[in-house]
Amino acid sequence: MTARGPVTVVARWQPAHGALDELLSIIAQLRPQSLAEPGCLSYEVFQELGASPCILLLERYCDETALDEHKRSAHYQALVVKRALPLLAERRVDFLHTWNPA
C-alpha cells in the first residue's frame, strides 16, 4: 500500500454458531490496544440489530502505512489472526479512502 491519507476499514464479521461471546471478548481486548497505536484515529464496534449476530468494525488509520503496521502488530496477530478468524463463519473487509469531489 502507498500513503494517500486516512484509510477507513469496514470489517463485517459473522460469527460461527456459538462463537459470538468469545469474539466480543477478543474485540474487547483488541480495541484498546489498537487505539493505543500512534496511527489509529478511531476504532468503533457495532452489533447488528435483530437475529443476526453480525459484528461491524469501523476503524480509521492516518494512512496506509499505519494500517499495515496495525496488521503486523503483535496484538493483531495474536487476537485476530490466531483467535478471531477461526471463529468466523464469514468475513468481509473493505478499505476506503475519503473522496473529495473537485
What's the quick description here?
With 102 residues, the chain is of the alpha+beta class.
| Global outline | globular
List the strand order in the largest sheet.
2-3-1-4
Strand-pairing-aware structural class: alpha+beta
- Tally of contiguous helical segments: 3
Low-confidence stretches: none
Q: What is the domain tally?
A: 1
- Helix share of residues? 25-40%
Kindly report the CATH topology.
Answer: Alpha-Beta Plaits
The first-to-last residue Cα distance is 24 Å
> What is the averaged pLDDT score?
93
Report the β-strand fraction as a percent range.
Answer: 25-35%
Our Rg estimate from Cα atoms comes to 14 Å
User: How do the helices and strands follow one another from N- to C-terminus?
Assistant: EHEEHHE
Can you summarize the main beta sheet? 4 strands, antiparallel
Structure commentary:
There is one protein chain. With 102 residues, this protein is of the alpha+beta class. The chain has a single domain, classed as 2-Layer Sandwich (Alpha-Beta Plaits). The chain is built from three helices and four strands, in the order E-H-E-E-H-H-E. It has helices spanning 20-35, 64-72, 74-84; strands at 7-15, 40-47, 55-61, 88-97. A four-stranded antiparallel sheet has the order 2-3-1-4. The radius of gyration is 14 Å and the shape is globular. It starts with 6 loop residues before the first strand and ends in a 5-residue tail after the last strand. The mean pLDDT is 93.
